[in-house]
Amino acid sequence: MDAQTPTPTPTSTPDRRRAPRGRIALAATTAAVLVAGALAFGAAARTTAADPAESALEERLQSLVDAGYPAALASVTRPDGTSIDVSVGDGDLSSDRETPEDAEVRVGSNTKMFVATVVMQLIEEGAVSLDEPIETYLPGVVTGDGIDGAAITVRDLLRQTSGLPESSEVVATDPFGMQDVYISGRDLLDIALAQPATFAPGDRWEYSNTNYIVLGLLVERVSQRPLWEQIDERIVQPLELDHTYLPVPGERELRGAHVEGYHADFPGELREITDMDPAFGWAAGAVVSTPTEMNRFMQALLGGELVSEESVALMQDTVPADDPFHPDLGYGLGLQTYSLECGVMWGHGGDIPGTQTRNAVAPDGTAVTIAVTALPWAIADPADEAVLLPKYEIVMDALDETLCDS
């Protein structure tokens, strides 16, 4: 939580992230693990149908569908690489198509973990400094009423302590109206900067997607390559994730087997919103993945495969965050944490019209991702907190129970 934590210096070890374009070889060993012993990966093995954990997970997911979500899908990936994939509900309300297991979904703000990972890699390479003002990398860009890029550090952006106003409150209020609209990252930032700062940099924590829009622009300026390509070359290819990607500009359809996502202008009146331009989320919320691949990514990140142990420690250096369900929630550099009965979990989670994902890694290294195919306020009146909040709670409860029971 100390803003003066030293920035890690580049290591002298070979940099696997700077390999030529094309296929990037996986590291032969893991630099660090969450628990004693190596995290064995590869083609994830599937547990047998007799596994009681699978039955328990199916019951939890069915309770989410019974609460009004069209479909729910989840994956549990244990430290040894074995995986349980479960799906329930209707993958397509118009045809009663069953929900495919481990389907592609839009993972919303989990995108921030991917962007933070790329930024930390650039820091390790010496291209970016954690406590350098963003003005150094984007001169004259981050400015406005009470907003000074010379006072906002890269660390402030990563941990949501910059005071930058929220862009989503302007561009994401009408999801169906934005469904086919492309907007650039720079335009998103300009919309946000037309509002005054919410507080002085470092004064406190407040979640703002604008922080990660700025970080996306930082990555592109420093690397001189598009953000989608940096995520692909630095994360997706090394981990051999076949269904994880940041959509390219203008891309609206999901590439692989997927479930349909739903939203509503009026609670309960669900309409499909699967195909859409996610540009309004971009570096803050546009990544597509599957539950299994999200688990693989989180385990690799926290296990030191993508950044050094020192960088993981920096990412886990948190400030208190305001959350109605978890008073002890902490937000680090693209990671958030809270305590369970079985210990401390690390992850993020994400909301985007059509999908809510909740995901984390448990103390023993088990990773869990749960996705439902609508947001809570699509199935409950957002003005009625007594009804709305339980729709949030049941998804978080399902995640927490699965993390501790698996």
Question: How is this structure best summarized?
Answer:
By secondary structure, this protein is an alpha+beta fold. Helices cover 30% and strands 15% of the residues.
- Morphology: globular
Oligomer: single chain
Count of DSSP strands: 16
Q: What structural class results from the helix and strand content?
A: alpha+beta
What is the strand content?
15-25%
Q: Helicity level, as a percent range?
A: 25-40%
Tell me, rounded to a whole number, the average pLDDT: 88
* Unreliably modeled segments: 1-49
Terminus-to-terminus distance? 31 Å
Radius of gyration: 20 Å
Helix-strand pattern, N to C? HEEEEHEEHHHHHEEHEHHEEEEEEEHH
The main pleated sheet reads as: 10 strands, antiparallel
Describe the structure.
The chain has 406 residues and is an alpha+beta fold. It is built from twelve helices and 16 strands. Strands 1, 2, 3, 10, 11, 12, 13, 14, 15 and 16 form a ten-stranded antiparallel beta sheet that branches. A two-stranded antiparallel ribbon has the order 4-9. Residues 1-49 have low confidence and may be disordered.
